[in-house]
Design a protein that fits this description.
340 residues; mainly alpha; Na+/H+ antiporter like fold; 76% helix
Amino acid sequence: MGLLERMRKEWFMFGIVLAIAGAKLEPSVGMNGGPLKPEITVTYIAVAIIFFNSGLSLKTEELTSALMHIKLHLFIQIFTLAFFPATIWLFLQLLSITPINGWLLKGLQTVGCMPPPVSSAVILTKAVGGNEAAAIFNSAFGSFLGIVITPLLLLLFLGSSSSVPFTSIFSQLFMTVVVPLIIGQIVRRYIKDWLERKKPPFGAVSSSVLLMIIYTTFCDTFSNPNIDLDKFSLIVIVFIIFSIQLSFMLLTFIFSTRSNSGFTPADTVAIIFCSTHKSLTLGIPMLKIVFAGHEHLSLISVPLLIYHPAQILLGSVLVPTIKSWMVSRQKGVKLMRPAV
């Protein structure tokens, strides 16, 4: 992971802490009906900016080279958008009998429903030297799939359609997610050379807007006197998130390294990161739409806010280990090939 990218992510983590602290200090500024008018500026404008920005930055023209590796793509997308949320749901049936805050458990389910991130899985795959083209394809393709599948999964597992009309959710998703994304891709076609030359700070723009969404979400929470988050639940959720992350990384490693899997060591690296990483950039705006006006929205968002830094931290720590495994496996494959 490059120095600038690492610094940006560290500042973003600091920004999340600062945003939550600021919301706690003076929640009236960013609450619904407050001076920032988040019901308009966040719900419509901020979300649209994030997805227009994603449309501009997604290099879909680079995906054709990875398109034909269908088995790899199917594995990653099915694991991410089917196996992951279903396994979390089963796990939560056990956790539901514990004293852990129920809204945090619902938040864990939302993590399982999220699509892969646009950047972190690609950056870590590249850092290891894995199949970067496959990582780019699955991050981008998963993001597009997530626009439709993630809201459906949220409604299936959490039943949020009882408080927000199904048609209203999808019409807002279409106008604030799909349309800006398509417009971003169209604009990119005309200014692609300029974008490649100037390299605008897409990550910084999305991160700044995302911090505003996080800030206003927690302003709503802290302005509600009925919400209380106990420290026990929070500590247990952090432990569970790290355990889930490690378990699923190990599981994808085992599945993709079987003798009959047909995956190369470089493919396995892309699978490990793309299958287990979840998007905060796409996730928070979607939660804001699907759970619009929900008094416990910020509690539902907490596990995703924890999962995001957890996946980057664990991924960065494991880069040297995974890289040494991949190099040794590739050397072993070369030695096994008969000399011509």
